[in-house]
Amino acid sequence: MNRREFLQCATLLITGASASQLGFSLSVEQTTYLAKAPDYNTLEVDYFTPAQRRIVAAMSDIILPRTDTPGAIDAGVPQYIELMAANWLDAGESAIFTAGLQDMETRIPAEFGAPFDQLSHAQQLQIMEAMEADAEDSSWYEFANVLREFISDAPFICQIKELTIWGFFTSQEGASQVLRYDPMPMYFDGDIPLNRDDSSWSSPL
Fold first, then answer.
1. Beta strand extents in 48-205 (DSSP E only)
2. How far is residue 202's CA from residue 178's CA, in Å, rounded to a whole number?
3. Which of 12, 122, 200, 203 is the most exposed place for a label (fewest CB within 10 A)?
4. What backbone phi and psi angles, to 5 degrees, belong to 112?
């Protein structure tokens, strides 16, 4: 399997969703892998320190805050990220993620006088926007690159954003309360109109 297929399997195991609900089909290799995999729905994880856990929660909340719909915290995204970091990132990805998280732990209090999770929303946003600006040369930011393979050398800010989006939109909250949920039996319609501000559709859970 390539890295994207591997991460798809991880999402299925951790969230309990099905491939059809997430809009992709499984290869034979993926099906075989999932049949042999342990049950991750009940897996306890203790990979981050308490301080790191608070940083990840604050960052995911900046990316997908609660509005009139659920946000990342409501959907359990921080735990999803911890599970992925502990069990699914390869050695290179894990090294980037760990270094980025440790940088947040040490550099931010030194520069701002308080841990990231204790800063104001405006300060947190400023820090994450600066991280994005520093990472803008990564191929992760290529225009319209939505069907890319998982980019293993993507900077930490990109990893956090991608895992937050994956975790949120494969959760029950994201799929049923943010995506437009259609409980009718599935059928193909190639001409469903979307208004400018409409969200996409979710398959039945």
1. 180-181, 201-202
2. 9
3. 122
4. -115, -5
Written as six digits, the tokens of 102 are 């440790």
Q: 202 φ, ψ to 5°?
A: -115, 145
How do residues 23-79 score in pLDDT, each as one tens digit? 567 777 777 766 666 655 556 678 999 999 999 999 999 999 988 888 889 888 898
Q: Which helix (H) or strand (E) holds 123?
A: helix 121-134
Dist CA 62 CA 98 (whole Å) = 20
Which two structure tokens, joined as six digits, stand for 15? 């969230």
Burial class (CB in 10 A: 0-12, 13-18, 19+), 108: buried
In angstroms, what CA-CA distances link 15 with 41, 65, 80, 195, 197?
7, 20, 8, 30, 27
